[in-house]
Amino acid sequence: MSANVYPVPDDIAKNALIDKSKYDAMYKQSIEDPEGFWGEHGKRIDWIKPYSTVKNVSYDANDLYIKWYEDGTLNVSANCLDRHLEKRGDQTAIIFEGDDPSVSEHITYRDLHERTCRFANALKSMGVGKGDRVVIYLPMIPEASVAMLACARIGAIHSIVFGGFSPEALAGRVEDCGAKVVITSDEGLRGGRAVPLKRNADEALSHPGVKSVEKLVVVKRTGKDVAWNDARDVWYHEACAAASPDCPPTEVNAEDPLFVLYTSGSTGKPKGVLHTSGGYLVYASMTHEYVFDYHEGDIYWCTADVGWVTGHSYIVYGPLANGATTLMFEGVPSYPDASRFWQVCEKHKVNIFYTAPTAIRALMREGESWVKKADLSSLRILGSVGEPINPEAWEWYYEHVGNRTCPIVDTWWQTETGGILISPLPGATDLKPGSATLPFFGIEPGLLDNEGNELTGATDGNLVIKDSWPGQMRTVYGDHERFIQTYFSTFANAYTTGDGARRDDDGYYWITGRVDDVINVSGHRMGTAEVESALVAHPKVAEAAVVGVPHDIKGQGIYAYVTLNADEEPTEELRVELVKWVRKEIGPIASPDYLQWSPGLPKTRSGKIMRRILRKIAANEYDQLGDTSTLADPGVVDDLIDNRQNR
Ligand code: 6R9
């Protein structure tokens, strides 16, 4: 824990939307009178039929329901587009910055509205209607935002699958949500390299389990020749050209689904996290405004991909609902060179910059000369998300990128939470490097011991949230029981986050990381069970155990222990083949950094793999293995230590 404290700078406090006393007053009201608080702030978006009730929630696992603004109706795309047309039709909604630094485009609200309406009509003509599922498998191009907004316009439910996921991973998600339409592009472009998205989509749709897809819409991005199925495939540009630019927004209920986003849990296959329309938009827009101290005219850039929840809430829905100018970046931080982020900040005069610790650490390693190449004087607020930020990276970001004048908002939240739950507010919160600091309005964190007793004062514990907020997920798509089991059965009457945290004497929260078998690689969430099941799906593998291992850049790396079938030889070729196999099964982000042959795994007599031991060996802390006496065969440990990969 870092001991440094950075007080709110005077000039920031003076102009901020929320200062210290306002934060205290609003936070108090939000906890004491959630109905009144959210009733008032729900009005920040436009409703077709206003709500008469605000909150209807029970956290009782035997009778669980979460409803906000439940009799209100609205349309999310009208809130992000139509309502801005009169005042800011000609203002830029999206700045697109291409992978190639010579490519950028400004898209006004009027233009984005027209593109959305055309594509919404195109989807309608393909038979997509309210409640139908549409999978979006696109690179970071404006069409991804258009596709999201077009679905929202007609009440269809989108599910974005990150463009880095493999055909197998895509197929699993398409199958689980029963998508009618999939949207992809001929290729993606990242760091100068083409990604064969259409080919991946073709392969995914040929899986025997995928039966629901009627149309595959293809955006022309690079112009590369692609295989074509006349009965199924449709060019995006042709469909839009043929469609009318006039598409009245469909009225949906506040509790109608807006999107499903798959995320990793500690067990089983990824869960379809379902978010609804009204509460989600209120929460995404409000957190975007206050956490980033967003002012009219600010240029705002979140470097996430729309394939992750951060892209949903803080590239598209939050900023657009607020009428902001949001930057979408197709490329990577290291292309053409390590100054790219900073060149983009200078080029577009970015005021608010939101990125992930893994990117900061990677750029920090390249040295600050890359930062100095660019004029960063437009920056006012910096943000961090995805994993704990180590104090060294925080200090570097603060000093070299922010010139010691920009507050850093370290925002803690999850796919499940829809928006930021714990974070500084730039004008209200003194900063401590490495701490996500204090809860947002309406958020009541608690720290529990493993028995579920609430701990008070400065302490470590399991982080729970004691009451609902409007942006909370509502269910796991198609599996409500799993929703209750995962989030509401471990501890009574609270939302279980799966994270551990420490609260200090000032009431600041320091997230210590996952308490379950979820690992966080470069800010991407992965269940160790997912990687294990990919490995054991290989015909030569008998058993596998996967743990996270500390990694300088990625935060955590993937360390796999693999037991081969009795007649198989552990060769270098096979090691390479297995790493490739996992890439193919899940995607490049799941590639094991280390793969160790393990003739046996440390198991208890009841057959449970003791991951604690595997984690220690992977981290080279094999002198601190603790008690190994409950192992069925303590001998396996010596072999694992002798053959460890991370030396
Ligand atoms: C938004 C997002 C969620 C998990 C979460 C936690 C970790 C995210 C963090 C953070 C410490 C932060 N996490 N932000 N840990 N400080 N500021 O990342 O969603 O992909 O669902 O991951 O990421 O462990 O539980 P998601």
Report the average pLDDT across residues: 95
Oligomer: single chain
Query: Cofactors and ligands present?
Result: ligand 6R9
Radius of gyration: 24 Å
Reported for the largest beta sheet, the result is:
7 strands, mixed
Q: Which strand order do you get reading across the main beta sheet?
A: 5-4-17-16-18-19-20
User: Tally of extended strands?
Assistant: 31
Helix content: 25-40%
Q: Which consecutive residue ranges, at least 5 long each, have pLDDT under 50? A: none
The CA-CA distance between the termini, in Å, is 27 Å
- In DSSP terms, counting alpha (H) and pi (I) runs of 4 or more, how many helices? 20
- Quickly give the structural class: alpha/beta
Strand content: 15-25%
Summary keywords:
20 helices; binds ligand 6R9; alpha/beta; single chain; 31 strands; seven-stranded mixed β-sheet; globular; 647 residues; 32% helix
Description:
The protein has 647 residues and is α/β, with parallel strands linked by helices. The chain contains 20 helices and 31 strands. The strands form nine sheets. The protein has a seven-stranded mixed sheet, sandwiched between helices. A five-stranded parallel sheet has the order 7-6-8-11-12, sandwiched between helices. Strands 22-21-23-25-26 form a five-stranded antiparallel sheet. The longest helix has 17 residues, at 109-125. The protein is globular and about 75 Å long. Bound molecules: ligand 6R9.
